[in-house]
Amino acid sequence: MSENSKTTNYILGPDSQVQDGVPKGALIQREWTSRIYPGTVRDYWVYVPEQYNAAEPACVMVFQDGWGYADPKGSVRTTVVLDNLIHKKEIPVIIGVFINPGRESEDFLNDPRDHFGKYEFSQRALEYDTVSDTYAWFLLEEILPEVGKDYNLRQDANGRGICGSSSGGLCAWVAAWEKPDAFSKVLSHVGSFTNIRGGHVCPYLIRRAERKPIRVFLQGGSNDMDCVWGDWALANQEMASALRFKGYDYRFEFGNGGHDLRHGGSIFPESLRWLWRE
Length: 278
Description:
This protein starts with 25 loop residues before the first strand and ends with a helix. Residues 107-120 have low confidence and may be disordered. Strand 1 and strand 2 form a beta hairpin. It has a single domain (16-275), classed as Alpha/Beta hydrolase fold, catalytic domain (Rossmann fold, 3-Layer(aba) Sandwich), CATH 3.40.50.1820. The chain is globular. It is α/β, with parallel strands linked by helices. Helix content is 29%, strand content 22%.
């Protein structure tokens, strides 16, 4: 094994650990039957920080493959990180919306934890890997208004972020690309900017279009997948190159990890601080 092929033992730092004296937000599970994706149902979770004040609109961040990010024992531990960083005032008060991909309503693939395992949600590739504005409209017309019935959410793009891993990372970018007036901050972990359903065109679209008001944090790894649909490591480097070429506000962290959330999870607190630094 060459030195370059060895993967770093990425670990979670203090900001990803439960801390004494830090207020803990609530995580509420819900279910949604979609109109934009007819015949599909999905689980989603809403994280509400203890510091939320209904009199003040809160920022909001959407996470694809919801339970993979919301799981307090997972690779990212998003709610723990949000608790800690909001408490330290290093990021604003953020309501998290964690959405699983849809499944056909007659399916019984209802284990929310197994989003990359033996149960593949039937609509995941359609929703996440398609380069179009459909998923963005699903968020803007269905999910965010539904969450907004109970919580006072900011409506401006600067108050909204979106995050995902693998195909969910591609989905996060495409949603902001299609609707930059709605999402201004993107966090992509080992994004699938490859040709599953056309995601390989993203770097070329960036190069040819006027720069959009999107801030982007990309994470990739040299030991990511290389298969018939493309080379994930190369695809993320192509994205970073295109963003640099067009003068985007972006950051690219390229390690030697594989197609997982270990590297992304280890730098997740810093990713949030960078994205929400204003």
